[in-house]
Design a protein that fits this description.
6 strands, 30% strand, two-stranded antiparallel ribbon, alpha+beta, single chain
């Protein structure tokens, strides 16, 4: 994920924490933004009863993926 996107997620109010200098996002918040994010949920870490995921496992959908997703939603 690009630094710009990480900054945008933080600015949107997505909850995160920093552990040993690395940024981790709360899985609960990430799932709320599934419309434009791809997340590798096999990489979830359970820390003190909270599910978190490292920023490197969160990616923004490509423009093509966003277009396909919008098209499929119209058909529903």
């Amino acid at each position: 994920m690009s630094i710009k996107t990480i900054k945008q997620l933080k600015e949107q109010g997505m909850k995160y924490t920093i552990i040993d200098g690395e940024t981790y996002f709360l899985v609960e918040d990430v799932k709320k933004n599934e419309d434009y994010l791809i997340v590798d949920l096999t990489q979830v870490i359970h820390k003190n009863g909270i599910d978190i995921i490292h920023e490197k496992y969160i990616h923004e959908l490509s423009d093509f993926d966003k277009m396909i997703k919008r098209t499929l939603k119209k058909e529903d």
